Amino acid sequence: MSFWDRIKKSISDTVDNPAKSVFRDASRYAFIDVEVGLKDHRIHDIGALRWDRAIFHSANKRELLDYLKDVDFVCGHNIIHHDAKYLFGDVAHQWMLVDTLYVSPLLFPEKPYHHLLKDDKLISDQINNPVNDCEKAHDLLMDEVARWNTLSKDKKSIYATLLDGISEFEGFLQFVNANVSEVDDLANLIRSTYQGKICENADIENIIAQHPCELAYALALIDTTDHRSITPAWVLCNYPNVENIVRQLRHTRCLHGCNYCNKDLDIHYNLKQYFGYDQFRTYEGEPLQEMSVQAAVDGKSLLAIFPTGGGKSLTFQLPALMEGRSVHGLTVVISPLQSLMKDQVDNLAERGIADAVTINGLLDPISRSLAIQRVLDGDASLLYIAPEMLRSKTIEKILLARHVVRFVIDEAHCFSSWGQDFRVDYLYIGKFISEYQKKKKLVTPIPVSCFTATAKQKVVQDICDYFKQTLNIDLQLFASTASRTNLRYSVIHTDTDEDKYAKLRSLIAESSCPTIVYVSRTKRTKLLAEKLSRDGYKALPFNGRMDADEKIANQDAFMSDQVRIIVATSAFGMGVDKKDVGLVVHYDISDSLENYVQEAGRAGRDPELQARCFVLYSDSDLDKHFILLNQTKLSISEIQQVWKAVKEMTKHRARACCSALEIARKAGWDDSVSDIETRVRTALAALEQAGYLERGNNVPHVYATGITVKNVDEARRRITASVLFESEEVEKAVRVIKSLISQKYIAKAQDDVAESRVDYLADILGLKKTDVVSVVERMRQEGILADTKDISAYLNDAGESEHRSKRLLEQFTKLERYILNNIPDDVLRISCKQLNDNAQKEGIASATEKDIRTLLYFLTIKGYTRKKEDAAHNIEVVRQADLDSIIKRFEKRLAICQFAVEWLFRQTLSSAGEEEKKRGVQFSIIELLNDIKKSSNLFGSLQDVQLEDVEEALLYLSKIGALKLEGGFLVLYNAMDIRRIKDNRLRYKQEDYRMLNEFYKQKIQQVHIVGEYANLMVKDYNAALQYVQDYFQMDYKRFVAKYFKGERVREIERNVTPGKYEQLFGSLSDKQMEIISDKESRCIVVAAGPGSGKTRVLVHKLASLLLLEDVKHEQLLMLTFSRAAATEFKQRLMGLIGNAAHFVEIKTFHSYCFDLLGRIGNLDDVKGVVSRAAQMINDGEVEPNRIAKTVLVIDEAQDMSAEEYALVHALMTANEEMRVIAVGDDDQNIFEFRGSNSKFMAKLLKESNGRLVEMTENYRSSQHIVNYANDFVKAIKDRMKSHPIISMSPDAGSVSVTQHSSVYMYQPLVEDLMNHRGRGTMCILTQTNEEAVIMVALLRRHNLKSKLIQSMDDFRFWNMAEVRFFLKCIEADTHTPLIADEVWKKSKQRTYSAYADSASLCYLQQCVKLFEDTNKAKYLTDFKEYIFESSAEDFCDLKNADVVVSTIHKSKGMEFDDVYMLISEPRQLTDEVLRRYYVGITRAKQRLFIHTNSSFFDQSSIVQKRVDHNIFDTPNEIVLQLSHRDVNLGYFKYRKKEVLALRAGQKLRYDNGYLFDLKTNKPVCQLSQKIMGELSSWNEKNYFVSDVSIRFIVAWRPKDAPKEEKEHAVLLVDLTLNKQIGEGN
Q: Can you tell me the distance from the alpha carbon of 55 to that of 33, in angstroms, rounded to the nearest whole number?
């Protein structure tokens, strides 16, 4: 019904119903308040107060009606829609209802609002006392009547006419006997009454007809003198059109022009008023800024592409400030850069504009609370938040309470997957705005302003499309087509880091202007700045991770020309406007042309200045960008893992409330906290975007804000004494509080936010989250945890801090007192400069303009004063209360500040050490409040001090710089509300990943594109400029087609430079590349023939996974069968990809399983460890993050046993998306004796429905050797490979088989070797250790240097004396997980010195070198595991050996030019034996010589056959290598000191079963009965001991020895036996 209809009906009703015009006596009134149950909705209590002060207090409605029989007006607060509904229902009654709720915003629209009101509620000093509430309502109504009577006749008439006939106001209007005006004159009456405050040409007639009530509320707000006054949220909720009407009247420019619009809505007038500028900034003559501001003021949505230095901030700040004044509106600025938000708020404050606030994670609790309150109270016209904050219920609540006039989105390219910085959380912005508009019942969409510095056409289109699709908004585009003419670009190629630095230094030396040097890493900012400073060019660093104070100081030093050079990351320059920067040098090239143009554009802001921009470039710079991109990108497999976790968590119901950490752990992630937070949120946003789930608001739960106990001992006492904790729960509770106290002080030490999340606590302590929550809640009940508002404060320079803080406090309070006393009762009009001058003349010598601004800002935001300031810094200051009240409040704050400074200083002095004194004091605000109240030296009534007073005092001390406030301590659970939408059985697919994948593809191409620019700039300057122009203005596909033709299109899609790609994959064969290129198969089983480049393929595949296939190092697991293989892979991978290889997990099966079991691996305890780990995975006993992998790579897959296969199967079952790459050669399975079987390769292939790839190209062996091997292998049954091996060698080579009649073939083999000895490498392969040792002795007789590779029973590398000594040195000086470099170096020196004359030191030296090469950081557990898993033969240095002697088993993986095999007739020719021989055959590269007494080897036609019928004896000299079984171990128990004094290689004397030290002639070893029996047998053959040398000295302890028994030192020696010719023959 329209207003006119209601007027007519009102007249008609009065005629028809005479009761309507019944006279009522305003003096006969009663107030009613009803208490209604929230759950049962029944009346529990009624209170009433009559005009005659008669009180009613009962729940009896009948008695109430009797009480009201003589009443004409029944009054109450919200009586019409609450109390009356329950009391009277639809029953007719004779009295009028007067509701104080609805008229209060009309009569008290201005700050400070009525003291009895808070939002829509009465402020009551008693709980559940309806009579008391009636008293308050009575006082409020009397104040409302009094205020009504102060209104002018015209305003009374306007309100009465607009509100006539509206039930919520009718009673009040009758109560005050309001008169209704003629409706025809109402619009003109409003125009004349509000002249100069509203547009004279606004369509008021239509508003009166459609929304009279809303117009009344709008006029009340318009009539306020303080723009910070706002319409209450409940009014906006019930009357949403109020906001629109205020905009129509106050912020909609009329076509004809009127005095109001021509002034208040004129952007040039306001530009001068707020910022002091006479004109807007132009960009190469284009008025972009002015056009954008005008569009915003006109209510348009826009996209502005402003170049660096284009004045972006002012473009949205000016319209925001204008709308803050005109419609009391709030502009919400969404930006991803927290530090930039703070800078913009501070910059506005410096201009005297206190309208901006930011709410972000960097704020201390007091500042955050104040920021939220300022938005709610209307003090803010600009609110800066990050996109993630839109998920906060608090942010949603405060925005719903305000009239949001515009959303400003900074860095708008983040919307587009084609932009340089796509962020999935930006895609929630549209949904939030849409939901916000629905909740506010808005008809007209809230306009949006988007800003970005640089954008290509596709990005612009994506941004526009996004807002059209989500909000049906069309963005008006403002973009510059001009290019900077005062910048000269150059690219200088550099070869090395030294060359790059030298060129930088020469550029700086040639220049005398302010210079910015951009680097890509935060660490490099400091290193490079220090280096330049040392060389005489003073420079300061700047990066986003620096301490805020240092950052500001360095920036100020550069801006004020105290320093000429700043070395910075891209974080520098945002919001910084220094016009005279004449040189910008990119020490590292940017990762996109967008970023480069932005950063280079920070030079030459002054159009008259000719500036130079240099890039110091090498192709390796691009590789760094690619590596960083791969580390930070979110792969499809990670999103699939998060989706799997969400499905698991919503298995029983579709909604889950969980933290990011819980999702990450369920997904199997194990990463840093901050990284987890970001990656989980991004994955959830991607899933939400694809429609898999819906994420609601964050659901934080704060359990406590402080710890009341001083230490763990006090906590233990209180927990033990508590009835809330059972005896068995005490230790669990103590662990929780200990962790909380620890984290509180760790945070303090690290200058970090002190908070402890219960989900992280549970994760750290290995407890269930529910158990931690239970303990925390009971500790809260016990008072160990409480809401004490813990906070941290710094008193800088501990020694002088009290004096400095007192001095600052005294200085500022003296100035503040002067300012307050000089504000007259009406208004102080003065300039800051004049006020400062006056203060100094009055004896306040320390006064500065900056200090005055600081104080005025504080006084304004805390409600002492109201302030206006123009661009010339002329100010108008008005007190918000009388002077006595203001001074009383000031004195109270001063006293608290004085007490707080002394109190905090005492707290600092009580800290334990000097370091603690330098750090912030952690304290409880409640504790400080209580101590203030106890103090007898404080002003007046101590009970008068409230928590708010203490918080205000601390904020004041913070603002004046007397102390620095930081985050408090929170025990909280920060959960997210997630609702699964799609079916649990669905998988996140490639199509769903399209947008993110597109973004990452673009990022890769952008790196290539900026590299191409650098190369082009070197060749042709103008062509390079055209290239940049085309990039931003051409359609992207056309741009790529123009500059990247043919194969180059594929090149720019790869995550490596063309040069790096060639280095990685250029020399690989087609078959090898087939495996490298397979990115889809879930399981690839590679049957790799000998010499096919198996290791090479695996290493290059690892590189491909990391660089080209979106696999992060923590998602990749490679399992090998030996530590030596793991080390080799790590070394070779480092050669390909550099330091990134350090972070790849390459482990043996055993060490990985020991990790899962939480133990350090060692070869003595491997039995069953793999089976136990597999079973734990299957039983769900291993945390997902320990086993979640994207790719599993298995080396030597043919050596898998049932145990290893069970582990692989368990991992595949636990990771449904995991890819497996298993490489092996079934023909080389020679470890069947330990359970290995190549059938598990075939089983893996079958069960995973995998792909079999045969690698049959042999790059090792010559043609004859390969052909011989092919013939030989045919005898082996059940092979996987179906194709023969193909030799890729051009050489024919040779295979020679000598068949002997003799049992012993040592001598002829050596003679053969001597005859055919060439320049290449040679190896003798034997079947047994004994044969190998005999060969070594025989070669020595022929003056050939040999190296023996063999294993020894019961011998463990880590037991070697040299290794034990080294480890002991390290452990003595290592008290942290990480071995310090100094400790490592010192331990090496001590060990190498102590064992300088030891023949076995070389094993340790090689071990240490390999560990250093493959471990960037040296962790003690890693080193222990490394040596525990290694064998001595792993560190056998084969250099300088003429011949290598090895058993066939130990030769696997090796290759030699010439191979000599010694093969005695086997007892049984099994497949296992044949495979062993096959391994030996395929070690040969050029020539193969087989000496055998079997006829099996000469079956092939290509063999050179020889027959030798000579019978040979054993050699004259043999060597027996003694093991643990060959010595009397008990004999060493009491000879440890003597044994450790010896060294490997040292000679001993043998006598009748004992070995003697030649120096002391004392026995040091007794041989065992076993070896004595063997020696006796040799004696019978005329072989006697001729020489004894120590091979190893090792640690040993009996397995059944008591724990306290120390290890013995045992000698393992070589006995040389010589044959005595002639005797006994």
A: 12
